[in-house]
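Give me structure tokens for this 526-residue protein.
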Amino acid sequence: MSLDFQQRLNIITQQSYALVGFGRGIEREALRVQPDGKLSEGKHPYAFGSALCHTSITTDYAESLLEFITPVAKNVEQLFDYLNDIHHYAAKHLENDETLWPISMPCFVESEDNIELAQYGDSNVGTMKTAYRQGLKNRYGSMMQIISGVHYNFSLPASFWETWSEIHQSELTDKEAQSAGYLGLVRNYFRYGWVIPYLFGASPALCQSFLQGKETHLKFKKVGKGTIYLPYATSLRLSDLGYTNSAQSSLNICYNSVENYIASVRQALHKKAPEFKNLGVKSANNYIQLNDNVLQIENELYASIRPKRVQKSGETPSQALNARGIEYIEIRSLDVNPFSKVGITEEQVNFLDLFLTWCAIKPSAEISAQASQHFAENLSAIVTEGRNPRLQLEIDGKTNSVAQWGEWLTDELKELAVVLDKSGNEERYKAAIDHIAPRFSSPELTSSARVLENIIEQDSDNGPLALALSKLYKKELIEQPYQIWSDQYFQDQKIESIKKQQQIELSDILSFDDYLQNYFIHSEKA
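Here you go.
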């Protein structure tokens, strides 16, 4: 008989040592913008080294879309020291008085043609990265691809998995227990992960230029000169307008076992998409897309959470999972926090630690394709009208308002917070849930409501607000000192990354066509 949450918590309480040593990492995206708030047209700054090989500073979709990556940190203070040091160096070395756009939705972009794809040099691997982005452009347009987010990477300590087997009454051990446990966490995140955009979503409005003629069924209101918004929206970034892929709606990615997950991803990689076939793959010597499947490569799979494993050289993500199991999970549903100069706060991280641990402990039944679709509909409702007091969500047969679900969740999180704080001999988790929980019953306290209040009260556009914040944050970032690293460290990283890229380029012996063919042949292997 399966233990309920309270019984599981009682076991965890006696073994709180098993919750010491979370692994944490942050990937923060940010557009470089000109002093007038328009998208930067400059190349990736030389001071940042090679975007292909730098360990901390790279680009995402576009030359102007920076991505800052922290190492794995074992405590929250160290995590933010890493993140602040990267931002400090970047702010000091931005060129032409550029700043970092502090919100998720893009700045004013006159035309998609002004968005230059990220460039990674002349190597085959670098060429493939740019060709993949060319495919994204041709499939979905560039505007969607320059939306910024914050990804949170999280791992439970190794000591947790023996306790996990006990509380789940499972005979699984080692990597099998760990993979099963992480997938249970993932399934619960699909059930309850709507709380993340509800609490922390910060994109209820966008510049009208973002639409660029795109049709929408959403009934926007207008404020200022060109800002449109939805009164109850939390995260338009996660809506049909934002970082989604309608072509993937027919995919049935299964999270009930690691074997089923890998099999369903690989099946998706071979599924043909008629709309993409019509684009063609290659014109003359230029790639239109890498292939005409629903997914060009695994990275194209859009999901609010991903099971992950650090890849070895030459491995695909699913090959790494198949060989060594799930190592950590990546949360992808966080908007950039406009009220933080580094895009996320320590309080958010503390809440995420608490919530994700709860997802790992909480009973987590398998999810059918129908249930998966229903949870996606819940998320869609939250991102467009999450602060509507009349909104009801149905989860596993129970229907409640957001406030009612929040009250139930808060009670269980508060109990878990006591255990986590005991293991760390502090009260960081109690403080986080005490401060954040009132947002469930008082939606005006959420991040999205605060953003909208600023815009509507001043009858202004979100652009001027974001630009003012970007300039303030640049000043603050430049003035703050290093905590862990130094200018010399980043100079060494720059030089090392450039050398590494040159070595990769010199080592190529295949044509790009042959390299790409070999890549897809190799990716078929288990």
